[in-house]
Structures are given as structure tokens and as C-alpha cells.
């Protein structure tokens, strides 16, 4: 068991962001990838159990995680669980990855892939709303994958913002903590919203060359971006969803009355090699088992290479 059960640190080591973004792109063009709808089981107290299976021709995996919003601010993680990876040919369980680490890395790598394909301006500064696990992962991904050298951080917790700023500096980038995200938009072409999505945190017009990755809201009741901002980006820019599942999960867009069925998905952008759009871009990410499968594939490759 010790050979296949990877700690959070060992899981992270298997999933460097640039390589994971490449694996995500490869999985989107792999016809063998199968991803059934995820099961979301409501739990008492407002928590949820997520069951997310997927497979390709050689690897099968299931992510089992709990999402417990009540843990916020308690020192306990809001997301806990595992990703179990199997070899299809033998049925053997090959790896058990740390679920929260996979979630953080694959979510940030999806945003990185979207930015690589869609962002009009990848130089930064990067504005990050939310200084938790996802905020940290996105900073690491954009520094490693885009070469961002300046990060602005806005968080309702000054201590968390300062801690993330200190981490940014260890990555070789400059960091600044700001109090007003809307006021920072004119200076930041790259924006990530990675908050608990309990209410609108941004409702302002971005730069004409802005790329916004909204990742905090992944249920119909959650929201980070204001309705006016979503509708404005629909009118004057481009809105892309991570997968078709966003049609019933993207709270920001659903609450703004956006026709999500008419929006392109990241898979279509990658498969069709669509040109980089003009004007501001909103990338709405809700999560998908296929992203976890890509992480499992990369982890398998790296573990086998080291064996």
C-alpha cells in the first residue's frame, strides 16, 4: 500500500503545471476518453459528496471527495478525499492520489491551458481574488506556465493575503496586496477569482485585453461575478466554459441569465485550434472528471518512469 498511496507532496510532485496543461490538452483530443456525469450527493449540514469516474483506453480512475463549506475558517480543509487509479488491462489499483491536491493542480492547470489558448495578454500582472488553496495553485501555475512576474492579491483575510504574497516572492515574482479588486482591474490583464463563492466579489468592466478565469463557483447557487459583468462580457468579449456540464453548474452565468448552451467549450477551442479571440475573455470553470483523468494519466507516467 505504501508504494501506491501518495501523500499530498508526492501527488503535487507528479503534477507540474506546464506538463499537466499539456496532458489536459492531449486528453481533449483522445477519442478513448469517457467521462460519465458526476454524482453529487447532498450531505447533512450543507456538505456534498462528489463521485467522479472517468477512463481512457488504459487507465480508469474515480475521484471521491467531500466538499464541506462549514470547514472554512476552522483549520480543516473544505475539500477532502482521494483519487483512485486503476490499470484497465489487469484491474490492478496502481495509485491513490491526494484528492485536494489533484483538484487544486488540475483546476489551475485548466485555467493555465485556457490562458495559453485564449488570453490576449499573458504578461500580467495577475490579479488573484482569494488567497486559499486555489489562489495559491493558480499563482504557481501562471508563474510556471506563463512566466508571470507580478501578482496582485485581494482577500477578505489580510493574513491569508500576506501569506500568499510571501509565497509568491519565493517563486521569484513580485507581490502586492490590494483592498479593492475592481480598482485593480485597469492594471491587471490576467484575473483569477478563486473565492468560496458565497457572494459577488467582482462586478466591474475589465481591460480590453483581459483574461478572467472564474473558478470558485461550481454549483447553480454559487456566484463570484456579478450579473452585469457577465452580460457585459457576453456583449463585448468572449465567454468560454470548461465543459458542457457548465450548462447546469455555472452559477455566475446562470444567475446572469446567460444562454450557456451557445457558448464554446475549452474542448472545442483545443480540438478545432481556434484563433485567439479579440477583446476580453471570461473562462468559466466548474470542474470535470476528465480533468482528474488527465492528472491520473500524468501521475501514472511519472511514477512508472521513476520505477
UniProtKB/TrEMBL annotation:
<dbReference type="InterPro" id="IPR003462">
    <property type="entry name" value="ODC_Mu_crystall"/>
</dbReference>
<dbReference type="GO" id="GO:0042562">
    <property type="term" value="F:hormone binding"/>
</dbReference>
<feature type="signal peptide">
    <location>
        <begin position="1"/>
        <end position="21"/>
    </location>
</feature>
<protein>
    <recommendedName>
        <fullName>Ornithine cyclodeaminase</fullName>
    </recommendedName>
</protein>
<dbReference type="InterPro" id="IPR036291">
    <property type="entry name" value="NAD(P)-bd_dom_sf"/>
</dbReference>
<dbReference type="GO" id="GO:0005737">
    <property type="term" value="C:cytoplasm"/>
</dbReference>
<keyword id="KW-0732">Signal</keyword>
<dbReference type="Pfam" id="PF02423">
    <property type="entry name" value="OCD_Mu_crystall"/>
</dbReference>
<dbReference type="InterPro" id="IPR023401">
    <property type="entry name" value="ODC_N"/>
</dbReference>
Amino acid at each position: 500500500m505504501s508504494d501506491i498511496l501518495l501523500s499530498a507532496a508526492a501527488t503535487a510532485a507528479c503534477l507540474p503545471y506546464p506538463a499537466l496543461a499539456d496532458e489536459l490538452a492531449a486528453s481533449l483530443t483522445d477519442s478513448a476518453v469517457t467521462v460519465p456525469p458526476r454524482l453529487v450527493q447532498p450531505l447533512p449540514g450543507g456538505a456534498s459528496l462528489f463521485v467522479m469516474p472517468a477512463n481512457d483506453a488504459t487507465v480508469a480512475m474515480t475521484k471521491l471527495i467531500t466538499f464541506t463549506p462549514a470547514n472554512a475558517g476552522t483549520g480543516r480543509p473544505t475539500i477532502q478525499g482521494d483519487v483512485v487509479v486503476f490499470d484497465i488491462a489487469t484491474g490492478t489499483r496502481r495509485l491513490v492520489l491526494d484528492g485536494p491536491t489533484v483538484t487544486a493542480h488540475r483546476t489551475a492547470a485548466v485555467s493555465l491551458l485556457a490562458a495559453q489558448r485564449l488570453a490576449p495578454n499573458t504578461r500580467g500582472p495577475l490579479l488573484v481574488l482569494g488567497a486559499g488553496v486555489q489562489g495559491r495553485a493558480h499563482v504557481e501555475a501562471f508563474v510556471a506556465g506563463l512566466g508571470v512576474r507580478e501578482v496582485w492579491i485581494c482577500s477578505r483575510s489580510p493574513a491569508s493575503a500576506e501569506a500568499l504574497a510571501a509565497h509568491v516572492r519565493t517563486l521569484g515574482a513580485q507581490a502586492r496586496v490590494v483592498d479593492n479588486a475592481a480598482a485593480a482591474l485597469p492594471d491587471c490583464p490576467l484575473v483569477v477569482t478563486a473565492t468560496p463563492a458565497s457572494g459577488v466579489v467582482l462586478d466591474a468592466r475589465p481591460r480590453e485585453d483581459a483574461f478572467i478565469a472564474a473558478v470558485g463557483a461550481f454549483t447553480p447557487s454559487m456566484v463570484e461575478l456579478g450579473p452585469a459583468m457577465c452580460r457585459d462580457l457576453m456583449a463585448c468579449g468572449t465567454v468560454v466554459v470548461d465543459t458542457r456540464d457548465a450548462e447546469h453548474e455555472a452559477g455566475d452565468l446562470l444567475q446572469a441569465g446567460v444562454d450557456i448552451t451557445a457558448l464554446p467549450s475549452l474542448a472545442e477551442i483545443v480540438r478545432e485550434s481556434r484563433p485567439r479571440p479579440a477583446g476580453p475573455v471570461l473562462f468559466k470553470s466548474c470542474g470535470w472528471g476528465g480533468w482528474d483523468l488527465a492528472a491520473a494519466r500524468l501521475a501514472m507516467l511519472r511514477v512508472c518512469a521513476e520505477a
